[in-house]
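Deliverable D4.2, example record:
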Amino acid sequence: MNVSSSEQRFDTVVIGGGQSGLVVGYYLARQGREFVILDANDRIGASWRKRWDSLRLFTPARYSSLPGMPFPAPTGAFLSKDEVADYLEAYAHRFHLHVRLGTVVDTLSRKGDRYLLTTGDHRLEADNVVVATGAFQHPKVPAFAGLLDPAIAQVHSNEYHNPTQLQQGNVLIVGAGNSGAEIALEVAQTQRTWLAGRDTGHLPKTYPPIIQELYWWLIHQALNTDNTLGRRFKELTGKKGAPLVGISQRDFERAGVERVPRVVGVQDGKPVLQDGRVLDVANVIWCTGFVPDFRWIDLPVFGSDGYPIHYRGVVEGEPGLYFLGLPFQYTLTSSLIGGVGRDAHYIAEQIAARSPAHVGHAEPAAESLV
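Output generated by the structure prediction step:
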C-alpha cells in the first residue's frame, strides 16, 4: 500500500534476495501476505555469479533444491555457481516473487510498533522484517596484511575469479578451508603454491546412498541447537573449521600444493609462518572468511561476536524481527541452499502466528520483478 511517493508500508519486508530471501518469500506468498524482497544486486543470483569461476557445490543436486522446485539436474550432479544462480532466478520467476533489485537498505530501526527502513530517499514501514543477507557479508583479512610489500598482489577469495588475475611468481593462499583448498589446487596448475592453515580433516564428496542419507540426516536434522550434541557440534565446527569435502592430502601432493602452518605476521614486507619461515611470494589470496556486518541495523540485538541473539532466527527482544541464513542457525545446513528452506518455513510460521495475513491479497505478477 502506497503512503506517498517516497514511503510505503508492508506487512513484511525481506532484506536480501539470495536463496534465503527467496525461500522465505515463497512461504510468505503462500500465506497471501503483503511483502517485498529488497536486494542490492542488479540481478537475482548475482552473489553466486560473482564468485570464482570454477566453484561448484560440494552437496549434490539432490540436496540442493529450494521448496517447491527441484533442481533441474541429475540428483548426483555437483552444480556450478552459474547453474545455482540461474536456478534462483528461475525460482523467483516461477513463484512471482516481488524482488526490488538495486535496492540497498541503509538503516533499519524502530518506529513505534513498526519497523522503519531507509533506502536512499525512500522509507518503508513494516510489521515484520526478515534479514536474509546471508553468511558471507564482509571479507575478513588480518590487520598485518597492510604491512606486506606493495609489490605483492593481494586478493580476497570474494574477489578471486581465476588465475589470470595473479602476477607471475609464487602464490600463498592463507586459509585452508574448502575455498582455500579448491583455489590452491587450481592455482597450482600454473604457479608454485603454498596453502597456509591448520588441517581440519577430510570427508569424501560421494558416499553410498544409504550412508549419504544418514549423513544428511545427521547434519540437517539430528545435530541441531535444541540438543546438547548439536550445540557441541556447532561449537566444534566454529572453533576447528569444517573438514575439506572431496579433497584429500594426496590431491595436494599430486597438484604440488605445499601445506604450511598458519601465517602469523610480516617481516621485511614478507609473510611469516608460525614455524618462523619467511616466504618469498608474489601473490597472496586471502581465504580467511567473512565477518558479519550489521552496522546498518540500529537495534540492540547483537552479541559480542557481531551476530544477532536469536532462537532459530527469531529475535525475542524485538518482536517481528527475524534472521535467516546465518551459520548454524539451527543446523550445519542452515546456510546451505538445501537446508535454508526448513528455517524459512519455521520463520514464516512465527510471522503467521504473530500477525495473520490480510485476506484477499494477490501474489505479485512475474512482471513485478523489478
